[in-house]
Amino acid sequence: MDSTITLRVNGQRQSVATDSQRTLLDILREDLHLLGTRFGCGAGDCGACTVHIDGKRAFACQTVAADADGKSITTIEGLAPNGRLHALQQAFMDEGAYQCGYCVSGMIMAAAALLDQNPHPTDAQIRAGMNPNLCRCCGYVKIVSAVRRAASAAEALPSLRR
Amino acid sequence: MNRITNTIDRQSDIKPRLTRRRFLQSLGAGLMIAVGASPTLAQEAPQPRRSVRNRGGFGGAPVKIAARVHIAQDGAITVMTGKVECGQGARAEITLAAAEELRVSPDQIRLIMGDTTLCPDDGGTYGSMTTPRTIPTVRTGSAAARQALAAIACEKLAAKPDDIQFKDGKITYSGQQLTYGDLVSASLDKAFSQLPSPDVKVTAVADWKVLGNPYLRPDRRDLVNGTHVYPSDIVRPGMLYGKILRPPSYGATLTSTDLSAVKAMADVRVVRDGDFVGVAAPNTFRAQQAIDALAKTAVWQTLPHLSSKDLYDHLKQSAQGGIPQNTHADDLAKAAVALRQEYHVAYIQHAPLEPRTATAEWTDGKLTVWTGTQNPFGVRGELARAFNLPADSIRVIVPDFGGGFGGKHQGDPAVEAARLAQNLAKPVRILWTREEEFTWAYFRPAGVILAEAALDPTGAIASWYFLNINSGPQATESPYRAGKHQAGFVPSDPPLRQGSYRALASTANNFAREVFIDELAAAAKIEPLRFRLMNLDNARLKNVLQTAADKFGWNNDAGKKPPNTGIGIACGTEKGSYLATCAAVSVDEKTNAISVTRVTQAFDCGPIHNPAGLLSQVQGAIVMGLGAALREEIRFENGAITNSNFADYAPPRFADLPDIDVHLIDNRSAAPAGAGETPIIGIAPAVANAVYNATGKRIRQMPVRITV
Predict the structure, then answer these.
(1) Do B217 and A144 touch (CB under 8 A)?
(2) 3-state class of B270 per DSSP?
(3) Cβ of B87 and A93 within 8 Å?
(4) B20-224 has which CATH code?
(5) Per CATH, domain B231-302+356-431 is 2.60.120.10
(6) The domain B447-702 is classified under which CATH number: 3.40.1160.10, 3.30.365.10, 3.30.70.330, 3.40.470.10?
C-alpha cells in the first residue's frame, strides 16, 4: 500500500508515493533517478549505497521509506553542487583511487562522514573508519591515500550537515 | 504525488537503432565511412577454431583503418575497440596507444569500447590479451591513419614526408598549418577504407612520448561525481524491472507453481515458459514481492548434490581417465631427498561489486542489450542462438562496468532480460541480487594438485611430477629446471558451474608449486630463496625474485625473528610476465588467526604502457589474492551455497590491508605482456610459506588455514 513520504534530497524537497517498506536506495535510483548511489549487496555488507541521512552515514539499502520520511538525504550528486568537486572527489580523482569505480560513490560518502567526525585521521583510523565499505578491485591502498590527501587539503571541508 | 525534479536522461546519446554509419556521421560532418564493421569485414576475420554459429568474441584480425579511427571535419578523433573496461585499465591504455601513434594528447581521443555495432571485434577482454594483442592492432591502425593524414598533408603543403611535423592534432610545414579536420576528404576516405599496410611503422619504445607516462582514466570525473553510467544504470522509456524465479538447489526442476497470486498483482507481469519463470514490475521491490509469492507456491523436484566437505575426494575419484601415474616414481625411492604431496584449492567466486545486469529492448524485431560483459561479441552470439536471430539484428552495448575478474564472460542476464522484454514488449532490466551472484554465476574451479619430486645431493631437481585435477592447465609447466619432467592436467566431474577467473588455474598451480618448492628447499636444508635461484634458468624470473627479496629485506635467519612471525617468498611466470612476492605474517598463538603484515612484490611485464594503471592492477591483485589466500571459499550443501553473501564469504577489506611495496620493472627490451592477471598468483604461496616459517606448520590448502 503506497503512502507519501517527504524527503529533502541534496537540498531539494521531494514527495514520493511509495510502499513504506521499499528501500531508500530503490527510491533514490528508481523514483528520483539519482543513479550515483549503487546497489552492491542489499544487506549492508558492502557500502556501495552509502549516503548521509541527517548528516550521518547510512546504508541506503538498509533504510526503508518509512524510516527515511522527513529526513534530509545527501547523495554523491549532492556532494558536488554546481559542478565544483568536493575535496574528497578531487582527491579520489587525482590519486586514481578507483579501478572499476563502482564502489567510489559509497567510498566518498563514507569518507566524507569520517572526515566530518575526525578531520585529521591517522591511516589506522582511515582503515577502521572505511572498513564497512568493500572495493572488489581491492584498490584500498590508493583509497587510503585519497582520504589522507583530502584530509590534508588546504581548503576546509564543507560540513555535511545541511 | 511523485514529484520528480531530478530526472536525468543519461542515455540521450545512446540510440538503439543507430547504425554504425549514422553514428559516425553524427560525430561530425567529416569522413564518410565507406566500409565499417560490416558483413564484408566479418568474412575477413579468421575462422574460429570451433565453428559454432555466431559464437563471436574470436576477433583480433586486422581491420580497415576506418573501423579503428574516425576523424571528423572539426578534427575530433574517435577510436573504436571491441575491448571493454571493467576496472582493469584498458580504456586508459588503449587511449594512450592511439594518442601515441596519432601524435595527439590522450585527452584528444574519444574511445568507444564494447559496442558490437560500432566497434571491431577485438576478441573478449580476458587472458591478459589487451596488451599483447589489441594494443598492437590499435597502434598499427592509428599509425596507418597518421600516415594517410601525412600523405594528404604533404600533397596540400607541397612538402616531403620527412619535412612535416605533427603536434597536438596539427601538421605544420614551413609556417603553414593544417588540422586533421582540414585533411578530411575523399582521398582520406579512400586511404581509410584500406587495411593498414604491412609496412606501417609504429613508434619505437625509445621514442614514446605518450605511452609509458602515467595516465588516469579519461572518465575519472564521472567516477567520482557519481555520473558514470554503469550497465545497472541504464534506463529506457517504459522500462520494467525483471526478476527470475530461481530453483532452491542445483539441478532442481519446477514441477508446478501457482501464477494466480502474481496475476492478481495489477502492475506485475509474469512470463512462464517451461522451467523459466520471470516477472517484471515498475520497480525492483514490486518484482521481488512477485517472485517471493511465486516461490511460496513453487514445487520443485530436487536432485542429490555433492557437499563441499566431500569435494576433493570426489574430484580425485572422478578424474577423467584416471590419475596419470608418475612414470619416474622409481626416482623418488632412490633419491636422497624426495617428496610427494597433495594440495587443495577451493572454489571461489569473483563477486564483482556490480552484479551481473542487463537491459534489453526490442524494436521492430531487432534487439539491443546493454550489459556488463567481458565478451560483447560472444554475448551477441549467445543472444543470436537463444532467439534464432542473425547477429546483425542484435546490438550489444557494454558501458564501462563494475568489475569482471574473469567472471563476466557470459550473457546469462542478457538472455533473461531479452526473454522478458520480448514477451512483454517492453524494455526490461535484470540486476542479479548478491545471493544470485554467489549461486548462479560460475566459479573459479576447485582443484587437487599432486606434486612429486626427487632432488640430487646438490639440491638440483632430478625428477619432477606435477598434476592438476579439475582446475586447469595454466602454469602446470614448471619454470624450474628438472632432470626428468612430467606435468599435466586432467578434467574431473565438477559439482559446480565453473569457468574463468583472474589468472584462472595459475592461481591454483602456482600456489601448489611454490609451496612444494618451499617444502623441497626445507627438506634439502637449503634457504628457500637460494633454492629457487639455483634451480631457475630464466633471467627475468631470477631478476624479479632478487628484486623482491632485496626490497623486502629478505633475511631468513630463524634465530632473529620475533615469535609467531614469519616470512615467505614465491615467484611465478604466466602469459609472458614475471612475478615474485615476499610476505610477512604474524599468527595469533591462541586463535591461529593469520595476519599478513607486509608484502613486497616485483613485477616485469615488459615495457610499461601506463605506470599508473599498472600500479593499481598490481596493488589490487595482491589484495584480491589475499582474499583467496586467507578466507575466500565457496561452501555448499544439498545443492545450495551456504555462504552466499559478503558477510559470510568475507572478501578482503581495509582491515586486511598489509603494508604493500610494489616494484615495477620497466623492461623495455622485452615484448609487452598483459598485467591484469599474473600479479595475483604470488601472494597465496608467499603467505603459506610465511605461515610455515612462523609456526612450522605446512599448509597445503587454499585458503590457508591453520586447523588444530
Answers:
(1) no
(2) strand
(3) no
(4) 3.30.365.10
(5) no
(6) 3.30.365.10
Q: Which domains does chain A have, with CATH numbers?
A: 2-78 (3.10.20.30), 81-151 (1.10.150.120)
Q: What Cα–Cα distance (Å) separates residue A117 from each residue in A111, A112, A153, B212, B397?
A: 10, 9, 16, 40, 42
What is d(CA B433, CA B437) in angstroms, rounded to the nearest whole number? Answer: 6
Angle between helices B539-552 and B528-535 (to 10 degrees): 160
Interface check for B616 against chain A (CB to CB < 8 A): the answer is yes
Q: Please tell me the pTM assigned to this model.
A: 0.94
Burial label for B46, CB within 10 Å (0-12, 13-18, 19+), is exposed
Q: Band the pLDDT of B56: cuts 50, 70, 90.
A: low
Which 8-state DSSP code applies to residue B498?
Answer: B
Q: Where in chain B is the domain with CATH 3.30.365.10?
A: 20-224, 231-302+356-431, 447-702
Least reliable range by pLDDT among A86-100, B43-57, B455-469: B43-57
Tens digits of residue pLDDT in B392-443: 999 999 999 999 999 999 999 999 999 999 999 999 999 999 999 999 999 9
Instruction: List, as ranges, residues 197-256 from B with C-beta within 8 Å of A.
Output: 216-217, 220-221, 223-230, 232-233, 235, 241
Cell of B610: 601506463
Instruction: List Cβ neighbours of A154 (8 Å cut-off, separation of 6 or more).
Output: none
C-alpha cell of B525? 636444508
B612 inside 8 A of chain A by CB: yes
Residue B74: phi, psi to the nearest 5?
-85, 5
Q: How many residues does chain A have?
A: 162
Q: Tell me, what amino acid is at A92?
A: F
Cell numbers standing for residue B539: 633471467
Spell out which residues of chain B touch residue A42, defining contact as CB-CB under 8 Å. 433-434
What's the rounded mean pLDDT across residues A94-111?
A: 98
pLDDT at position B9 is 32
The bridge status of strand B640-641 relative to strand B636-637 is antiparallel
Residue B21 has pLDDT above 60, yes or no: no
CA distance B362 to B360: 7
Nearest CB among A21, A26, A138 relative to B620 is that of A138
pLDDT in tens, B532-574: 999 999 999 999 999 999 999 998 776 778 999 999 999 999 9
Rg of the Cα atoms in chain A:
15
Chain B (76-95) residues lying within 8 Å, Cβ to Cβ, of chain A: 86-89
B654 in contact with chain A, both atoms CB, cutoff 8 A: yes
Distance (Å, rounded) from C-alpha B158 to C-alpha B152?
10
Which stretch of A123-132, B2-11, B248-257, B306-315 has the lowest confidence by average pLDDT? Answer: B2-11
Grid cell listed for B378: 560472444
Residues 6+ apart with CB under 8 A from B79: B68, B69, B70, B94, B95, B98, B109, B110, B111, B112, B138, B142
Tell whether A19 is within 8 A of chain B (Cβ). Answer: yes
The B447-455 sheet, strands edge to edge: B484-490, B461-469, B447-455, B337-345, B701-702
Q: Which ipTM score applies to this complex?
A: 0.96
Residue type, B416: E
Number of Cα atoms under 13 Å in the Cβ half of residue B18: 20
Q: Which residues contact B685 (CB under 8 A, 6 or more apart)?
A: B510, B511, B513, B514, B515, B518, B568, B570, B581
Chain A contact present for B10, CB below 8 A: yes
Q: Where in B156-220 does DSSP place strands (E)? A: 165-167, 170-173, 176-179
Q: In whole angstroms, what separates CA B188 from the centre of its chain?
A: 37
d(C-alpha B357, C-alpha B383), whole Å: 15
**pLDDT 10s digits, B87-102:** 999 999 999 999 999 9
Q: What is the C-alpha to C-alpha distance for residues B32 and B74, in angstroms, rounded to an integer?
A: 14
